[in-house]
Design a protein that fits this description.
- By secondary structure, the protein is of the alpha+beta class.
- It folds into two domains: about 150 residues, no CATH class; about 100 residues.
- It contains ten helices and eight strands.
- Helix 1 packs parallel to helix 4 and helix 3 packs antiparallel against helix 4.
- It starts with 5 loop residues before the first helix and ends in a 10-residue tail after the last helix.
- GO terms for molecular function: dioxygenase activity; endonuclease activity.
- This is HNH endonuclease.
- Keywords: Dioxygenase, Endonuclease, Hydrolase, Nuclease, Oxidoreductase.
- InterPro entries: HNH_nuc.
Length: about 280
């Protein structure tokens, strides 16, 4: 069954992590499993996850590192506190019903300590339908864990624009904003925490557009360009899902975007209170 769901798992992972994914069926052991890794690092040089059936209605994912992953582990250990915070938030977004072993660490202080570090996630009492069970494990366990690894490694692309060649410090800040805006893990985490309902107007695009409705965007409630001093980034509190219209509208005011409350007031919605799920 795992072999038949490889493409679904690959699409979900590449969308959530921003990295190309490699995988192979592993017939070893009593029950067939699936090995998953970042394609540009291969199985030996980076994180590798092994998914296997567990019990009658469960799956277990074991995430560790390949034999020659020392360089990547060192890169992970030098990740910024902001990237570590987002990785922890992704791990923390896993359903509490999943048995999660972070090498004995608490999610609030979890970090990769060495190449022998392991994460073991066991999901039990899954739906009886095998396809539904695999899909649920993919979305609820594999994607957030691999996305956390991608964040720590640093899978981010900053696209060039007219600001990147400017000879002033603001160009660096603009790149940082673009990096955060385009980070696929931000969108993944925002949706996992808040759902796909616009926090301003309440629109749920998937209910209106079906499969074409995956258009919720990520909004930073406090624009990075307005910060007078660096502060700790809290993805659980600093992100909000917005439909494209509301997201465009809040940014029509510069350099300080409209707050969601201000925009809702302009729209005549509930006295300016944000939409709730």
């Amino acid at each position: 069954m795992l072999s038949a769901r490889q493409e679904l798992i690959r699409i979900e992972l590449e969308t959530g992590t921003g990295a190309a994914i490699g995988m192979a069926v592993d017939p070893g052991g009593l029950r067939t499993g699936l090995r998953i890794w970042f394609a540009d690092l291969d199985e030996r040089h980076g994180p590798i996850a092994e998914l296997r059936p567990y019990g009658l209605k469960g799956y277990r994912l074991t995430l560790g590192f390949g034999t020659y992953a020392g360089e990547v582990v060192r890169q992970i250990q030098s990740a910024s506190e902001e990237d570590i915070g987002l990785a922890r938030a992704l791990v923390g977004s896993i359903d509490p019903g999943v048995d999660l072993d972070l090498d004995g660490q608490d999610v609030a202080t979890w970090r990769i300590l060495s190449g022998t570090s392991r994460i073991i996630a066991t999901a039990r009492n899954l739906p009886a339908d095998a396809d539904t069970a695999v899909t649920k494990v993919c979305k609820d366990v594999i994607v957030p864990l691999m996305a956390a690894m991608a964040e720590l490694i640093g899978y981010d692309v900053i696209e060039d624009d007219e600001t990147t060649g400017a000879e002033y410090e603001g160009a660096i800040l603009m790149s940082t904003i673009r990096r955060r805006e385009r980070n696929p893990r931000n969108r993944l985490l925002c949706i996992r925490l808040h759902g796909e309902k616009c926090a301003c107007c309440g629109l749920e695009p998937r209910e209106t557009y079906g499969d074409a409705g995956g258009i919720i965007e990520v909004h930073h409630l406090e624009a990075l360009s307005t910060l007078s001093a660096p502060r700790r980034y809290d993805p659980a509190k600093d992100l909000a899902p917005l439909c494209p219209n509301c997201h465009r509208a809040v940014h029509t005011r510069r350099p300080h975007p409209f707050t969601l409350k201000e925009l809702r007031k302009m729209m005549g919605l509930d006295g300016g209170e944000e939409a709730t799920g």
